[in-house]
Amino acid sequence: MKHMKWWGWGDEDKEFDLSDKPALWPYIVENLEVDPDAAKISHPPICLENIRLDPPKRNEPFLAEIKSKIYTDHRERVVHSYGKSFRDLLRIRKGQIDRAPDGICYPESEQEVCDILRLAHKHNVVIIPFGGGSNIAGCLEAKGDRMILSMDMRRMDRLLEVDHPSMIARIEAGAMGPALEKKLNDAGMTLGHFPDSFEYSSIGGWVATRSAGMTSDKYGKIEDMVISLRLATPQGQIVTRTVPKSSNGIDVRHLCIGSEGILGVITEVTMQVHPLPAKKECYGYLFPDFESGVAAVYECVTKGVAPSMTRLNDPTKTALSFAFKTKEPFFVQLLGKLVKQYLKAKMDFTKVALLLVGYEGNQKKEAHAIYKKHGAFCLGQRPGRSFQKGKYDFPYIRDFVMDRGAIADVSETSTLWSNLLPLYYKSQKAIREAMIKVGAKPYCACHISHTYRTGASLYFTFGCKGTDLERYLAIKHAAEDSFMQNGGTLSHHHGVGYEHMPWMEQEISSMGMTALKALKQGLDPQGIMNPGKIIP
Length: 536
Fold this sequence. Notes:
By secondary structure, the protein is an alpha+beta fold. It is built from 20 helices and 18 strands. Strand 8 (about 225-235) and strand 9 form a beta hairpin. Helix 11 runs antiparallel to helix 14 (about 365-375) and helix 17 (about 415-435) packs antiparallel against helix 18 (about 470-485).
């Protein structure tokens, strides 16, 4: 099976290329204080063969009964040891794997998953479900003294059925984003779910972590799309009925969504799907400041004309977007300079905010009028095309700056419209102060990535010189503390794992935690399912 590179994001033969982005490297040097001469220098991680792992633990009674093939070779164990968080990559690049899975299995059917869980429960073997390995919240790390088996789901990747009249599709949980979307497109449908991790993540992983996609403003987050599902637990299967709505007490389906493998393994989901849009357009708008952009986005939402995608950058994130500009033909450069001169007479370019929107329906005329009313200048489709071309590139940039001795990472939250700007100001201040406290020049940008009738998400990007874990954690904790103290949620779509676990009781209350523990005990009394995640 082909996996992402073990030391970073994406295929092993792909890394971030800035050769066609002349402004980006100077921008990185200025803001992250990296060595100006390091642009073409790559610091490869430790050799794979030099990563030392403890010999795999063997539970002989379990191994004697299991019929599935278990892989124990060095590369497989390394690949399945971590996800792709900054903390994960920082350690694996140093060859630090304190506890690797003892084996990896690739089940090919729901029955095989159930058989493995039954034996694991019987013999006290830990199971960690694995989709694409893209998680950045610590959901995949192995812990403990028992034998640990990583269950990689990617061989269960079939599109089982498309019900066109009902607009639903039955899908096995291991289906990866690009292949699944192509199969649906061939059937004239789309799931409409495009997270940043789209190229390297699975639908089971999306459901297990309550993922959000770039067009969630139109199609909803992943939990809004799930009609029914099947979850294999150590005690048996949970199967929910495929109906549009019901009134049958507590919605068991939503106990499984977001469970991150601590209750069982999602084997199949039935999802709402949609006809392929006849037309897709992506436009850029420039606002005089972030606040006017927020007001315009809010008005579009409240008037029911919100585009399918809305990404409003604050001034710092806007400057980063401008630094991403690729080389252009002379006449385009000349036109751009003329437009910039015109806009500079009307706007302070240290305060401007770039809005990128995607249209898939008839919202463009009304939304455009609202943006214009709030002082926006339409930049046309060129910024949108540029965004579409590089929309999955941020994880590569993170790796690129890590190679050059700097931190680059994200923290995201959501809050009510009435609290959006106060939370933005307070969290930006908290993140910057944390960087100053650790002796680094602060860099903190933000964009609104998803909107709702009641509020929106705030997606913070931060970076600074240095790659030590203590520095990173000080900044990360400052962000999460600010979210919790100032009316935000712990995470909007990255999940809990162990990265966000210390704040879980604040997030759901002490009795909410009691309920989670009772659910865990009932479905997994041996505690074999992905222990050490979500529940402290």
